């Protein structure tokens, strides 16, 4: 997915934002992600040979002294990931060395201690398309404010594909994610400068990014135990 109806982020606004290039023998795929500790980043359920993670910069191209590029082959994809239904669409990246934290590179504060309710204000960001007609990534990170739906509301659009491990969001009109935003975090600000990762961009409507259909995310609360077991975090 990509960000529809978004605003350009300022430098350091989302210091946990990660631009991720997933490389296989035949192709390179782009997705978003989030830094969750100095050793770990989170993404969606790709299978790859090597992953290149860019941190510290809102720009994909051009010179930026704040940008740090890390490569690793240590990926952990959820063992029950289903590429057809997008269930368990979550993965983790372990870096080969500890990331040096700066004003522009910081992990998120912590993970949700309670499940998301419908109507919760949330934010997502990414480098994906900004319209159905304009293909390709954008150079500057975009963000948009959204609200969660109940899964019952989301099933009215997507049907039984929606499970309890997913969460849907929508904007006032057609705001949401698009192609190129997959893996981007859904965040909730809880005051005191603390940011929770509550979702990971997973799917969009077949009707297109600019439809008023909701955007679909993996519900992070459902995977707290798995993340903790893999990373030792929490």
From TrEMBL:
Coiled coil: none annotated. One of its GO terms (molecular function) is serine-type endopeptidase activity. Keywords: Hydrolase, Protease. It comes from the Eukaryota. Residues 3-232 form the Peptidase S1 domain. Gene3D superfamilies: Trypsin-like serine proteases. This is Serine protease. GO terms for biological process: proteolysis. PROSITE patterns: TRYPSIN_DOM, TRYPSIN_SER. Signal peptide: none annotated.
């Amino acid at each position: 997915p990509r960000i529809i109806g978004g605003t350009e982020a300022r430098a350091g606004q989302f210091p946990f934002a990660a631009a991720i290039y997933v490389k296989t023998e035949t192709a390179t795929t782009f997705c978003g992600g989030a830094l969750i500790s100095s050793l770990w980043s989170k993404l969606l359920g790709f299978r790859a040979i090597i992953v290149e993670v860019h941190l510290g910069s809102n720009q994909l191209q051009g010179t930026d002294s704040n940008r740090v590029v890390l490569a690793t082959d240590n990926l952990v994809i959820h063992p029950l990931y289903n590429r057809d239904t997008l269930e368990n669409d979550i993965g983790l990246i372990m870096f080969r060395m500890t990331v040096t934290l700066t004003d522009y590179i910081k992990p998120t504060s912590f993970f949700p201690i309670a499940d998301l309710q419908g109507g919760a204000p949330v934010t997502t960001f990414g480098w994906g398309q900004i319209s159905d007609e304009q293909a390709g990534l954008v150079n500057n990170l975009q963000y948009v404010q959204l609200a969660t739906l109940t899964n019952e509301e989301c099933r009215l659009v997507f049907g039984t594909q929606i499970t309890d491990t997913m969460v849907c969001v929508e904007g006032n009109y057609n705001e949401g994610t698009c192609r190129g935003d997959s893996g981007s975090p859904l965040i909730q600000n809880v005051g005191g400068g603390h940011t929770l990762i509550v979702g990971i961009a997973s799917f969009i409507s077949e009707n297109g990014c600019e439809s008023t259909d909701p955007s679909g995310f993996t519900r992070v609360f459902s995977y707290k135990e798995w993340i903790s077991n893999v990373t030792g975090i929490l």
